Amino acid sequence: MKTILIATDYSRCANNALEYAAALAKGLHARLVVFYAFNLALVPPTTAADYVPDVDDLIWENNERLNTIGAKVSEAYGIEVIGVSTTDLVLDGLKKQVKKFDVDLLVLGLRGKSIFTRVLGTITTSVIKRSKCPVLLVPEDAAFRGIRKILFACNYRYLSSNSKLEAIYEIASTYQAQVQILHVEKDVDFIPSHFQKHINRNKTNMEELLRGIKHNYRFLHEDDIHEGIKRGTEELNADVLVMVPHKPVFLKSLIHPSVTKKMVLHTHIPLLALPNIKNSKAAKEEQQPEKASL
């Protein structure tokens, strides 16, 4: 992992995600790109009716602010930091910068109260769904204290030889973390032995990708998938939750405030969403009515 990009709007939420991303970059020996999408439509109104802020001046001020932040972060963590400010819309800007810097990990703050993070909240599912690199969502109260335990909640039907799990391996190997692969099932007719068949079917790929990493498999029966994952994170005392989201409705349920009671994440547990590369069987199943499993 060579490059991590963190999107900021200077809010408390974004600043916290920046600190988390910087600590992660230090451990992974990666450079950090701090990106700010300067949307001119969101420029605060001036009290002087006859004064219109100069666009070039505003961009220069933001670049200077990013450079100042970058210098402080670079000195504090001993990493290379690059500041980038553009007038793109957030989603367009992220796409351009990810491609420009060949980003390996995109970091976004979650649960902020500023305009940017409210907008970001509405497009987070789009970012995750379309991103070709892993996306790390850092809750507002998350604090980096190392990564010792990783919970990988997945549906084995959506794993294939094309699944990109390298991010799990790199983070786990760097921090010598334990990985637990969790399957939550609420189908009352589901037989545990079938769970083992799912594991065996995909075990070659999983074992190859996690070679040298301490890991184990776990099955949980839970009527509510969200509660099952929440239970899994609590019992493992996980530092990071990893998922390969495959249903937009499920993605929305992870971040939408109306389902706070069903939130998988506690305020201190980041969510790492891996790129969703469907195998042919999973693609067909996704066209079917939703099945009761994750």
Could you give a short description of this structure?
With 294 residues, the protein is α/β, with parallel strands linked by helices. It has helices at residues 12-28, 55-77, 90-100, 115-130, 166-175, 192-209, 225-236, 248-255, 280-286; strands spanning 3-7, 31-37, 81-86, 105-110, 135-139, 149-153, 178-185, 215-221, 240-243, 271-273. 41% of the residues lie in helices and 19% in strands.
Provide a descriptive summary of the structure in words.
This protein is of the alpha/beta class and 294 residues long. The chain has two domains: 3-139, 3-Layer(aba) Sandwich (Rossmann fold); 149-286, 3-Layer(aba) Sandwich (Rossmann fold). The protein is 41% helix and 19% strand. It is built from nine helices and ten strands. The chain has a ten-stranded mixed beta sheet with strand order 3-2-1-4-5-10-9-6-7-8, sandwiched between helices. Strand 4, helix 4 (115-130) and strand 5 form a beta-alpha-beta unit. The longest helix has 23 residues, at 55-77. It is elongated.
Order of helices and strands: EHEHEHEHEEHEHEHEHEH
Number of helices: 9
Gap between N and C termini, in Å? 28 Å
Percent of residues in beta strands: 15-25%
CATH topology of the largest domain: Rossmann fold
Measured as a percent range, the helix fraction is 40-55%
Mean pLDDT: 77
Topology at a glance:
Blueprint: E1 3-7, H1 12-28, E2 31-37, H2 55-77, E3 81-86, H3 90-100, E4 105-110, H4 115-130, E5 135-139, E6 149-153, H5 166-175, E7 178-185, H6 192-209, E8 215-221, H7 225-236, E9 240-243, H8 248-255, E10 271-273, H9 280-286
Parallel strand pairs: 1-2, 1-4, 2-3, 4-5, 6-7, 6-9, 7-8, 9-10
Antiparallel strand pairs: 5-10
Helix pairs in contact: 4-8
